[in-house]
């Protein structure tokens, strides 16, 4: 059979062990695998980026919480000082 005749053959004409059929199936399977691998890498990159953002936000939240506690303490101290000053001015 010539190469020209082989290219005109359909999948039904070829046997299950025909190399061109096996090659086509291999290429199709490889393409599916590459597509899945691409999706995996994309998803992993998104996950890593999201994780970095969450970690940065958690650090910022801890910092803001600490500053908030310091400000609350300063407000309490200033309120006490105001009360002392008010008592001194009433005398």
Overview features:
91 residues; 2 helices; mainly alpha; single chain
Task: Describe this protein's structure.
With 91 residues, this protein is mainly α. The chain has a domain at 53-91. It has 2 helices and no strands. It has helices at 3-8, 19-90. It is rod-shaped and about 110 Å long.
* Backbone CA Rg: 36 Å
Q: Let me know the largest β-sheet.
A: none
The ordered H/E elements are: HH
- Shape, per Cα inertia axes: rod-shaped
Structural class: mainly alpha
Number of beta-strand segments = 0
Please summarize what this structure is.
By secondary structure, this protein is mainly alpha-helical. Helices cover 86% and strands 0% of the residues. The protein is built from two helices and no strands.
SSE topology:
Elements: H1 3-8, H2 19-90
